[in-house]
Each structure stands twice: as C-alpha cells, then as structure tokens.
C-alpha cells in the first residue's frame, strides 16, 4: 500500500488493511458514529426499540431492517440538517426474533417483517465541528414506507390487464415495495429505489415468464403466502407483476403517494441513477442483478422544469413516465481466445470495444409502442427480461450499481461476480466479461458517443478486474498492482466531489470482510485503489455517500453467517455482547474536522 496520506485529492488517507475484525475499521485520524440503527424510533408515538417485545405497530414507526441505499438531500430551511432516505432491502428473521421457527412463522412475526421492509425518511443533524450525524426523531418529514404502504402505478403498464388483481381491478394501486436495493437521487429532488429480488416473496408459480424471474414453484422461504394470498401466485397470478420496478418517492412531502415507474421496465433493478441530457431530459441507468442478465437505459422525452413551484414539482413527477427504454449490447474488438482469464491482455492491450443501446419500447402520453417483434409494449415493460433475450442483449456478470461521473460523463458499471460464467453450457468469457468462473467481479467504464447521455452508441473498456492484485487475472486501469488494495465483488458505486469513484463490496471472496474503496478515475493516479473502511462480520457495505466532511455507509446484514441466531450470534455489532446485532448507518469523518481525503 501507499504509506501515509499520499494519493489523489480526496483519497489522501492511509488505506485500511484487509481484516476480519467484527467492527467498522477506518483510517488513522478518522472517527465514526452510528447514525441510526434498526429499530430506533423515528415517527411520533413510536416506542424505543425493545427486540424482545417487538410489534408490527412499533416497527412501522421505527427505522427498518437491512439498510441499503442511502440518499442525503438538502433541507434548506433548517440549518445544519439534511434529509436521509434509506432502503430496507430485506429481513433476517433468524436474527430478529428469539427462537424463530422458519417452518412456522407467526402472524405477528410476518407483520413485523412487512413493517421492517420498505423505506425510511429521517431528518439528520450535523454536529457543528465534525462530520458526526444524529437523527432528529419525530421530525414532520420523517416517514416510513413499508410492504403495506399504498403505491400508485404510473407509465405504460399502469392499468394493464397484466397488473389487475382481485384487490385492485384498476391495475394501478399496489400495496408496498419489496427488496429495495440501491437507488438514486433525481435532479428534481426525489429519490429512486430499485425493487430487486422480489421473486423470493412469491410462492407456487408455474408460468414460464415467472421462471425467467426466478419465482419459485413451491412455498416461499418466509411463507408470507400463508398470511396474505397475494403472495401465492396460484391464487393471485398478477400480484407478482406489480413488483420489480423502480419506485419514486418525494421525501419532501410525507403525505405523497409513492409511484412505481413502469416505463423503466420490470427486472431485478439493483438501483437507478439519473443524469440529464444537454436539453434537460432525464436519462436513467439501471442494472438487472442476475448472472447473465442485462443493463438498461431509459431516455425521457420531457424536459425537467426548474424552480420549486408546485407546478414545476408536479411536472417533474411525470418525467419518468414518457420515453424509450433501451438495453445494452457490447462487442469486443479483440479475438475472444486471448481473454481467457490467465492475465494476458488482449492483443490491443485493452479489454474494450463498442456498444449499442437497443430500443425495446417507447412510452408516450398517447400510448406505448413496442420495438420488439412478437411482444406488445405492455409485455415489454412487464416482461422486460424476455424483451432483452429477444433482441440479443449482452449477458453480463451481475450488473449492479451504475453511475455517471459528474466530472467526465463516463459511466461506471459494477459487475459483482459470476461463478457460473463458462461453466457447462453457460456463456463463456467475452471481452466485456473476461473471466470464466468470475469470482471477484469487475467494473466497466462506458463512454456515450459525443459524451451525450441520450446517444444510442457507446465505447467501453474495463476499468477494474477485481481480485488479489497478485493474481495475474486482475487489472487496475493499468496502475502498478503492488500499490493497490485487494478488492472483490464490487456492488455500489458513488462519486466524490473530485470525481473519484468509491466502490462498496458485497460478498468479498478473498477471506476478508467487505468494505469501501476509493479510486481515482483520471490523471497519473487513475486506478490507484485504496480501501477506506471494512465491515463487521457477515456485513455487506452499501449505500456509500461521500460528502466534503463525511462518508456515510449502510452496514447491511451484520452477523448473517451460517447458523447464527439471536441466541447464538456471529456478531453483536454495534452494541456489544448481550445485545441484538443491528443493521445500521455509519458516518465516518476526520477527527480534525477537515474534509475527507485532502
Ligand atoms: Fe441487493 Fe444486487 O444487491
Ligand atoms: Ca446491492
Ligand atoms: Ca480490445
Ligand atoms: Ca449485491
């Protein structure tokens, strides 16, 4: 590693060594605080956390479980405060309830789990002289959205026969959001949240379309179908068509109905990241996190309105309903035989090539048009994976978070891993996914033609091929590999104010815990990857935000290891022995009050 605080501006810290400590380990000279834990009360009337006496009502007023995406939005009217928005991806019942019997969950346990899913909005306050953040309970903007909150479906699939159920013959009203993984903030002041592995909540399906989405033919693991028949596909076939979307929330209006935006397609949305075209229309990137699945781009047709008037806000809440959904096809420019993962570079010295955004369907105010032969527009928006299959999109190694660099416009795609690549009859390594049995993942750098967000052509190259730098099949944008941190399984990505890329990992396969890394994307230090923090046992690093004075991360599913239970925990982070392990948000800041990494 680099010794001392050298590095690109914004990354001048001593890297944290890979480790297996059951704590959040941060660089020398930095401090941390737990901003908020699972179960802390945020709404008026919510009781203090008491895990032995938990109720669904209490949980619905408390911070949810397994925080993932984090957004921090300005709160101009209140000095030193910001609005924190968090996803709660899923529940770990075995670590939430003493004596949990997964064959026979109780109604109360299931209803607590419903209330622990969804989203939280909570106002947070900065300590004056540091980057420390603390929640402001009972703030009027604080809100919980759960698996039973009412959503409105908008865009081309709203009202479709495919979305009608016995409880909702209109096909426009859905209860809840599930498995919200990554997300993004819009330039118009809302947040987007990807519904990812929604398949796991549904039982008893026999349809081919459901199979393509991984929906099971038997009982679900949590057995929610025993308590609400909408989770039983045999009894309520269309409910499952109402999950797998990007949802949009207006965190500034706690009474607003959150929306499911069908124009962005239905798949296992890892997240959704927005940029604007040169003329002010939204472009949204989103990955479908599955082995051999695709990544997508939505290009809107309406321009964003500026200002904070009610009219502007209402207009901007329609931007994601009209536009074209595209899927990515990538072509390498070197013979595939040279990129078999032995560490040899392709003949031209780079893993790179060109790409096309293939249009799938266009949604307009007057209706939607399909660009896929043999599928209606409604089918494209509801069975988007099948549309990608038909047009020959490129099968990727689990496309996770995607984010454009605000300084350069280049787009970074995290591909977490794919141990099935090249196994049996599966697709073999190609230049964009250059490793068979890809255990450690990679990061792709994509340049839209003319650097225009709405281009239908792009160039791409690999930025990182992750793993132990001593492994010849790794690549750090050409930076000397004896000077970088090992990294495995890139998942979420974010940019700091200097244009450095920050990468959090999920399921690192090098024998160390997951963590957060920063890497320069430009200049002499491009590719110099440095580890900023490590996670407690069993935890995944999620939702990174890098502000001037703090780094914020979600510590998701700490203690989720093998047969761990409440009585026999693998971790008791953050509060120590005798307490429940609790997924939490952590802020990291400089002890001397200065900016991060300068
Ligand atoms: Fe929930 Fe794709 O990570
Ligand atoms: Ca993720
Ligand atoms: Ca090449
Ligand atoms: Ca992941």
UniProtKB/TrEMBL annotation:
Matches recorded under Pfam families: PhoX
Protein known as: PhoX family protein
Organism of provenance: Streptomyces ureilyticus
């Amino acid at each position: 590693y680099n010794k001392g605080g050298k590095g690109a501006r914004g990354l001048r810290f001593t890297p944290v060594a890979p480790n297996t400590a059951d704590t959040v380990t941060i660089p020398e000279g930095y401090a941390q605080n737990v901003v908020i834990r699972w179960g802390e009360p945020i709404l008026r009337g919510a009781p203090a956390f008491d895990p032995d006496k938990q109720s669904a009502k209490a949980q619905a007023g408390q911070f949810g479980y397994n925080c993932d995406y984090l957004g921090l939005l300005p709160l101009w009217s209140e000095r030193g405060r910001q609005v924190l928005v968090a996803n709660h991806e899923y529940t770990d019942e075995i670590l939430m309830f003493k004596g949990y019997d997964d064959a026979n969950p109780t109604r109360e346990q299931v209803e607590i789990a419903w209330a622990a899913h969804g989203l939280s909005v909570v106002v947070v306050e900065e300590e004056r002289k540091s980057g420390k953040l603390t929640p402001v309970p009972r703030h009027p903007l604080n809100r919980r959205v759960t698996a039973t909150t009412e959503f409105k479906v908008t865009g081309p699939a709203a009202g479709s026969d495919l979305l009608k159920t016995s409880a909702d013959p209109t096909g426009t009203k859905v209860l809840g959001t599930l498995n919200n993984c990554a997300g993004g903030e819009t330039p118009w002041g809302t947040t987007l949240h990807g519904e990812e592995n929604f398949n796991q909540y549904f039982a008893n399906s026999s349809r081919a379309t459901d199979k393509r989405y991984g929906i099971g033919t038997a009982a679900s693991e949590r057995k929610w179908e025993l308590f609400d028949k909408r989770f039983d596909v045999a009894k309520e076939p269309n409910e499952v068509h109402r999950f797998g979307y990007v949802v949009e929330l207006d965190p500034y209006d706690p009474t607003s109905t959150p929306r499911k935006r069908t124009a962005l397609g239905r798949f296992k949305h890892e997240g959704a990241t927005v940029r604007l075209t040169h003329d002010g229309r939204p472009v949204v990137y989103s990955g479908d996190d599955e082995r051999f699945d695709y990544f997508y781009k939505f290009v809107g047709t309406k321009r964003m309105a500026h200002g904070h008037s009610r009219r502007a806000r209402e207009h901007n809440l329609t931007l994601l309903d009209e536009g074209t959904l595209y899927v990515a096809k990538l072509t390498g420019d070197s013979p595939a035989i040279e990129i078999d993962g032995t560490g040899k570079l392709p003949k031209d010295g780079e893993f790179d090539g060109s790409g096309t955004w293939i249009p799938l369907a266009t949604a307009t105010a007057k209706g939607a048009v399909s660009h896929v032969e043999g599928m209606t527009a409604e089918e494209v928006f509801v069975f988007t994976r099948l549309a990608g299959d038909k047009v020959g999109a490129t099968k990727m190694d689990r496309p996770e978070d995607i984010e454009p660099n605000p300084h350069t416009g280049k787009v970074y795609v995290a591909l977490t891993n794919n141990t099935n690549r090249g196994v049996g009859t599966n697709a073999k390594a190609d230049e964009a996914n250059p490793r068979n049995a890809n255990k450690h993942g990679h990061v792709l750098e994509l340049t839209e033609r003319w650097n225009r967000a709405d281009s239908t052509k792009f160039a791409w190259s690999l930025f990182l091929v992750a793993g132990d730098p001593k492994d010849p099949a790794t690549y750090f944008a050409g930076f000397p590999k004896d000077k970088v941190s090992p990294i495995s399984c890139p998942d979420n990505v974010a940019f700091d104010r200097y244009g450095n890329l920050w990468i959090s990992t999920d399921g690192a396969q090098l024998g160390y815990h997951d963590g957060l890394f920063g890497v320069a994307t430009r200049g002499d230090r491009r590719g110099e990857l440095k580890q900023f923090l490590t996670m407690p046992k069993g935890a995944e690093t999620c939702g990174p935000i890098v502000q001037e004075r703090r780094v914020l991360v979600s510590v998701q599913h700490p203690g989720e290891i093998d047969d761990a239970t409440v009585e026999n925990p693998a971790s008791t982070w953050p509060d120590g022995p005798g307490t429940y392990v609790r997924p939490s948000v952590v802020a990291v800041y400089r002890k001397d009050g200065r900016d991060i990494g300068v």
